[in-house]
């Protein structure tokens, strides 16, 4: 018969870290009371805790979320910065790679049903002034939505609005029988963010007068200033307002489902509108 109790006077093995059995440690975790070596120690309110207990506590802690269900994150607006970097990189490639612009630009009549170009054209720009104004505007508008909606929903919103801007160009071109040779720029997507800010601010009970003024002024500029695709502005604006409204007004228990269902429904409606416009134009 054996016993785990050491005989009186027998040497006792020193305590060792469970994760690093070769390391002796007389410091113990405040939660589980196991020995913890310096590499596995994490500062706690009192004493230290082991990495396992810290991970377990983090898993049990609910992440704080905004009223609209976005996960609260500290730090820089990562998605907005990424979009800006992609736009700048694309503009540099436009300047140094022959044929880059013509390969990715969307020409509504020629590139019918080319969904890749309808999206890629939103990352191209005609001049340094063009990209500069768009990126500055994106920097002022984007972080608010990124914080309110969360990174994933915000990124999806931006891409769907970019697509919606291109669809707006096609639909309005068919209605007016005036087909532009090509459209470039992020303004369709940015107008979508304008529409989204309106929907979110209205849902949160904020003052919507400033965003309404911004939308009206920019829409008017699209009609007054030459070489501005106001059609893309309208398409992006409507798309952003509709999708953001679905995000913003979804009941709390349906917010996660809405984050996936709403973009799919909006894209499906855009595709139907696109197909109808091309069919009416015989393309």
TrEMBL record:
Signal peptide, first to last residue: none
Pfam family name, one: Rhomboid
Membrane topology annotation: Multi-pass membrane protein
GO molecular function, one term: peptidase activity
Domain Peptidase S54 rhomboid residue range list: 114-247
SUPFAM superfamilies to which the protein is assigned, alphabetical: Rhomboid-like
Subcellular localization, as worded in the UniProt entry: Membrane
Record's keyword terms, sorted: Hydrolase, Membrane, Protease, Transmembrane, Transmembrane helix
Enzyme kind, highest EC tier: hydrolase
A GO biological-process term: proteolysis
PANTHER family linked to this entry: PRESENILIN-ASSOCIATED RHOMBOID-LIKE PROTEIN, MITOCHONDRIAL, RHOMBOID PROTEASE
Protein's name in the database: Rhomboid family intramembrane serine protease
Organism for this UniProt entry: Cellulomonas alba
């Amino acid at each position: 018969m054996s016993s785990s109790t050491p005989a009186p006077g027998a040497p006792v093995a020193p305590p060792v870290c469970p994760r690093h059995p070769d390391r002796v440690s007389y410091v113990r975790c405040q939660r589980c009371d196991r020995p913890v070596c310096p590499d596995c120690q994490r500062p706690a309110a009192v004493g230290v805790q082991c990495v396992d207990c810290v991970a377990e506590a983090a898993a049990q802690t609910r992440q704080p979320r905004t009223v609209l269900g976005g996960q609260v994150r500290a730090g820089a607006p990562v998605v907005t910065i990424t979009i800006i970097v992609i736009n700048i990189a694309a503009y540099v490639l436009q300047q140094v790679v022959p044929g880059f612009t013509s390969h990715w630009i969307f020409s509504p009549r020629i590139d019918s049903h080319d969904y890749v170009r309808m999206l890629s054209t939103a990352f191209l720009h005609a001049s340094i002034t063009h990209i500069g104004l768009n990126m500055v505007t994106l920097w002022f508008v984007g972080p608010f939505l990124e914080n309110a909606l969360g990174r994933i929903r915000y990124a999806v919103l931006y891409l769907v609005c970019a697509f919606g801007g291109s669809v707006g160009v096609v639909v309005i071109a068919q209605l007016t029988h005036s087909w532009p040779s090509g459209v470039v720029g992020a303004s369709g997507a940015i107008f979508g963010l304008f529409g989204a800010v309106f929907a979110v601010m209205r849902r949160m009970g904020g003052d919507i007068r400033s965003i309404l003024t911004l939308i009206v002024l920019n829409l008017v500029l699209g009609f007054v200033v030459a070489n501005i695709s106001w059609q893309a502005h309208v398409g992006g604006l409507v798309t952003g307002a509709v999708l953001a409204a679905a995000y913003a007004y979804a009941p709390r228990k349906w917010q996660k489902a809405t984050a996936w269902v709403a973009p799919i429904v909006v894209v499906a409606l855009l595709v139907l509108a696109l197909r109808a416009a091309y069919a009416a134009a015989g393309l």
